[in-house]
Amino acid sequence: MLTPAQIAVIKATAPVVAANANKITGTFYPLMFERFPEVRAVFNQSHQRSSAQPEALANAIIAYASNIDRLEVLGPAVDGIVQKHVSLNITPDQYKIVGTCLMDAIGKVLGDAVTAEVADAWGAAYWQLAELLIAAEEKEYARKAALTGGWRGPRRFRIAEKTPESAVITSFRLAPVDGGRVMDFHPGQYLGLRLTIDGETVHRNYSLSASPNGKDYRISVKREQQGLVSGFLHDRVQVGDEIDVYPPAGEFVLREGAGPLLLITGGVGQTPALPLAEQALAAGRKVIYVHAALNGSVHAFRRQVDELAALHDALKPVYCYADPQPGDEPHMVGLLDEERLGKLLPQEPGVAAYVVGPKPFMAAVVKALTGLGLPESAIVHEFFGPREALA
Question: Is 137 a catalytic residue?
Answer without folding.
Answer: yes
